[in-house]
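A note from the maintainers: we've had questions about how concatenated examples are separated. There is no special marker in the raw files; a new sequence line simply starts the next protein. For clarity in this README we add a label.
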Amino acid sequence: KNTNQLKIRRKEALTVTGTSTLTAADSGKVVGISFNSASTAIVTLPSAQAGLEFEFQWLPASGNVAMDNNSAKVQITAADGALVGYVSASKKDGGGAGGKVSDGTDTKVTVQCSASEDITASTRIRCVCIDGTNWLVDGHVVTEAGTPEDAVAFS
């Protein structure tokens, strides 16, 4: 007889409003990004450990717009290891699709506003450590207009 039960599990959430350092205890949580200032918020991942996972979701500041300050940037930084992967980008109407790929040695992924690339609340990035060394990154950045792939960068 199978005694396993299917459980509905809610993910825990935390909100980042500026520069922040995550810990291994935060793994599995949805990290809400609530930042729209004329500066850079640096979110540092913990040391790479196999099985750690973080999902970043941009929260709405005004209507569907999450970031519209032309100088606002959110940078996700690896404490160690590289960020390896691809982040796609498109306009909210589906046009202008593109994206950026990591070169395999990058330690940062940045989502940034410009005069024409307001970031919408449907933007998300996920970082997963599989091997205890590198972070696998995937995600999608959605802009109001402009050239969407200019809103994301690996470095």
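[label: protein 2]
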Amino acid sequence: EVELVDLLADQPPRLAAYDCLCLAGGNPFHLLHCLRSTGADDAIDEMVAAGRPVIAAGVASCVLGRTIAHLRELGLCVPAMGCRDTVALGLLPFSVVPSANRWRSCRREFSATLKKVEVRYGPILTLDDDEALRAGPGLEMIRRMNRSSVYHHAG
């Protein structure tokens, strides 16, 4: 059974009781603000600690990493929507750039800019449109094109 949860309308702390959670799309600044202001970030920490998976696709994958501040410096056209807290959930040992295949194809300087931004913010994982992340326990990068291709990171 799949249940759709609206973080602003529902009771996010009950997320900790779910078998798994999938975060999809949206604005990472707004999503991070919602996770923090509703307590859903604590519920996600509980889920991961209990060994239940948290899956994130698209820009939602950014909130699982170390920071979302790098998105502004990369100029990825993501409005901050008043969010000043750019420290992400820290479930991953790096920050994330979603839809990297699109940015590489339309911006010649993307790879060079990414390297400069990594100097300031630490390691950054790029995800293409056909990839998602699963955190806890460990980490998996899920590729839709080849479902058996999974990146494992213990830790």
